């Protein structure tokens, strides 16, 4: 953090920022209880990734890829000239047709691994856990477990898969290549202002209650309603 403050000033180093530009973005935010400033410099122009998913970074390559960015960005990029800097490839899941089979279910990243542009990976895993824990509390016999997992799948799959989709969209937005927005500042503001609302303002308690109702319906021999979000 000291190096970051020296280079950027305390206001920027100690708070969260995203610089957006053609083909990528640079995110900075404090971690480790403020002892470290994390930097994520993203080049969105790669069509494919060869080799291991995580490799030691080549600072010369990073510097060249962001050479056209402004002086603020250059001050951040220069902080990456250190041996611990790593290069990561980003992946997400295509939509799975189901999160469960019999007595087995997937949750968290195993079910809906997402790109990081909305900061929802851990949050979605916690929501999965809330629904699963609430359903498991009602399971009395092993034969009831598949019904509980079906209820979990019905409630959690549409929402979590939408997060994956909109996170990809957010990545395109921050790379200034999202259709209908591109590099239009007014359109960008309009899009970013509402983009997180549907995730942040979700009534997770209601979501849990809906899963419980579906489970109870299945216990009584009822059928699932058509797919819903």
Provide a quick synopsis of the model.
The chain has 229 residues and is of the alpha+beta class. The protein has helices at 2-8, 10-13, 59-65, 71-78, 109-112, 121-136, 145-174, 185-195, 197-200, 204-219, and strands spanning 17-21, 24-31, 36-43, 54-56, 86-88, 100-101, 104-105.
What gross morphology would you assign?
elongated
What distance lies between the first and last C-alpha atoms, to the nearest angstrom? 42 Å
User: What oligomeric arrangement do these chains adopt?
Assistant: single chain
Count of folded domains:
2
| Major sheet: arrangement of strands | 1-2-3
Strand-pairing-aware structural class: alpha+beta
What is the residue-averaged pLDDT? Answer: 94
Largest sheet: 3 strands, antiparallel
What's the number of extended β-strand segments? 7
Tally the helices. Answer: 10
- Radius of gyration (Å): 21 Å
DSSP strand content: 5-15%
One letter per element, helices H and strands E, the order comes to: HHEEEEHHEEEHHHHHH
Stretches where pLDDT falls below 50 for ≥5 residues? none
* Helix fraction bin: 40-55%
Q: How would you explain this protein's 3D organization?
A:
- α6 packs antiparallel against α7 (145-174), α6 (121-136) packs parallel to α10 and α7 (145-174) runs antiparallel to α10 (204-219).
- The chain has helices at 2-8, 10-13, 59-65, 71-78, 109-112, 121-136, 145-174, 185-195, 197-200, 204-219; strands spanning 17-21, 24-31, 36-43, 54-56, 86-88, 100-101, 104-105.
- β2 and β3 (36-43) form a beta hairpin.
- The protein has 229 residues and is an alpha+beta fold.
- The radius of gyration is 21 Å and the shape is elongated.
- It has two domains: 2-88, no CATH class; 100-219, no CATH class.
- The model has no long low-confidence stretch (mean pLDDT 94).
- 47% of the residues lie in helices and 14% in strands.
- The two termini are 42 Å apart.
């Amino acid at each position: 953090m000291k190096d970051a403050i020296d280079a950027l000033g305390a206001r920027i180093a100690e708070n969260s920022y995203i610089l957006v530009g053609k083909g990528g973005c640079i995110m900075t935010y404090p971690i480790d209880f403020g002892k470290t400033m994390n930097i994520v410099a993203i080049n969105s122009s790669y069509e494919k990734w060869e080799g291991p998913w995580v490799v030691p970074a080549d600072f010369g390559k990073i510097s060249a890829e962001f050479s056209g960015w402004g002086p603020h960005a250059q001050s951040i990029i220069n902080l990456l000239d250190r041996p611990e800097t790593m290069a990561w490839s980003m992946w997400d899941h295509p939509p799975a047709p189901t999160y469960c089979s019999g007595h087995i279910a997937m949750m968290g990243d195993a079910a809906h691994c997402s790109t990081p542009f909305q900061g929802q990976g851990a949050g979605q895993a916690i929501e999965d856990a809330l629904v699963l824990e609430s359903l498991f509390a009602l399971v009395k016999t092993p034969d009831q477990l598949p019904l509980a997992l079906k209820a979990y799948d019905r409630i959690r799959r549409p929402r979590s898969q939408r997060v994956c989709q909109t996170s990809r969209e957010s990545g395109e937005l921050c790379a200034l290549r999202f259709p209908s927005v591109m590099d239009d500042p007014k359109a960008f503001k309009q899009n970013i202002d509402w983009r997180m609302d549907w995730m942040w303002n979700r009534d997770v308690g209601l979501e849990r209650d809906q899963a419980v109702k579906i489970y109870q319906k299945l216990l009584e021999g009822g059928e699932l309603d058509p797919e819903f979000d």
